Amino acid sequence: MHFLSTLYNLAWITPLVIGSASTNTTARLGPPNAICTQKLYHLDVSSYNYMFQNVQDNANMTYLTKLNQEYVGSFPYGSNFTDTYEAGMMEVTRTYAISGILCVPLSGEKNASNVQYLIHGIGYDSSYWDFVVGDDETYSYVYASAAAGIATFRYDRLGTGLSEAPPEAYNVVQKPTDVAIAIKFAEMLRSGEISGKPYTKIVLLGHSYGSIQSQALTALAPTAVDGVVLTGYSANATALPLWWSSTAYTTASLIFPTRFSPTEFTNAYLVTESIWTSQLNNWYFPGYSQTVADYARATEQPVTQGVLFTNANNITAAPDFKGDVLVVTGAQDWIFCYSNCYAVPPNSTYPNIPAYAQELYPAANYFSTYLPENTGHIVNLHYSAPETYQQILQFAEMVFTSSI
User: Which pLDDT tens digit goes with each residue over 305-353?
Assistant: First the structure.
């Protein structure tokens, strides 16, 4: 298959009225120690997408399950699935309405030329980065960043939160589209279209599928950001078939009928079947609060089957990225490490599984890993989050103060 390439045109912006938020999100605007501005960005984006065939956006769960079964059964080569359900690649040009939030520290920025750019993963919207239960700021990375004097920009991925949810859950809402949007926002941060001033230093921070997009961004647009943090990530895809099957992804409007109307979300917008299938893949007991896990479940966001079928496609190296790289993955991450990120062969030159990602960055100025203990896939929502945040913020400061 041809690798994703992207074309970009322009973006126009309209203010987003917070009171008009649908039941698809319960997120606040931002933490009390930051001044946050939310806008709806209309992005003109072109991407080269996989064209699916023999699929229906409103198919019933019997057929959606059959598709997942055939996809998992063809892993890792995918030839049988590709022959039956894919019909090559096609350029798709659309305007997408994407909700983004810029948060500037209330007490002032250490350096107004620096920003952290945050991309969330599957099952969440951008509130993943500002996660609060009640008034507890422990899990809010935006709060921790504002306390450190660093601005953040985050957005709701297509089909989540306050961003639009196109009905085409296969041929539009998929990885190439998401990566094109991610690159577009990076360019806008650099040019000053987000804050009214250009950012000279950008640290990109992704989680899980957001990390997959971030890694693709550094490969396709290697000068768009200066440093990248890949959380909930490794280059090991061995456990992905278990994830695809054990999550038991189900039509969102069936699981959360009061939150996701079938008139707004086609049937191929999916959520995990239960809190227990989510626990298996995302949480490591007893390293988290059940109250936090329950709230994450109650606010879970959908993912399209198109994203699930394309998120692992075309993972390639970023030979021209010369910035700094940090990989942060829970030591007990199920999806990327089979719950043991130190399980490397005896003769391995790498100390842990996430460290193998260094092979994707042969020209990086700096590469390191951090593995918080007693932590599963959702690194931000385990008890280890405060220390994890300090590690990431130290890395960001290193990038911001570097002369490179």
Answer: 999 999 988 889 999 999 999 999 999 999 999 999 999 999 999 999 9
Backbone angles phi, psi at 210, to 5 degrees: -65, -30
For 35-57, b/e burial (b = at least 16 CB within 10 A) is: ebbbbbbebebbbbbbebeebeb
The span from the CA of 132 to the CA of 136, in Å, is 6
Closest C-alpha among 6, 362, 333, 56 to residue 183? 6
Sign of CA dihedral 173, 157, 227, 380: negative
Ramachandran assignment for 276, one of left (phi > 0), alpha (psi -120 to 50 degrees), beta (any other): alpha
- For residue 249, the Cα-to-chain-centroid distance in whole angstroms is 18
Task: Say how far residue 311 (Cα) sits from the centre of its chain.
Answer: 10
- Tally of CA atoms within 13 A in the half-sphere of 273 that contains its CB: 13
Cα 221 from Cα 192, distance rounded (Å): 17
CA distance 209 to 206: 8
Rounded to an integer, what distance in angstroms lies between the CA atom of residue 102 and that of residue 266? 30
The Cβ of residue 196 has, within 10 Å, a number of other Cβ atoms equal to 7
The pairing of strands 86-105 and 151-155 is antiparallel
pTM for the whole structure: 0.94
Across the beta sheet with 227-231, the strand order is: 6-15, 34-52, 86-105, 151-155, 114-119, 201-207, 227-231, 324-328, 366-370
Closest to 67 (Cα-Cα) out of 51, 55, 82, 49: 55
Tens digits of residue pLDDT in 252-279: 999 999 999 999 999 999 999 999 999 9
**Which residue has tokens 């700094």?**
324
What lies within 8 Å, CB to CB, of 194 at 6+ separation is 100, 102, 153, 185, 188
What's the distance, Cα to Cα, between the start and end of the chain in Å?
A: 35
| Chain position carrying tokens 């990086």 | 364
> Does a cis peptide bond (omega within 30 degrees of 0) precede residue 76?
yes
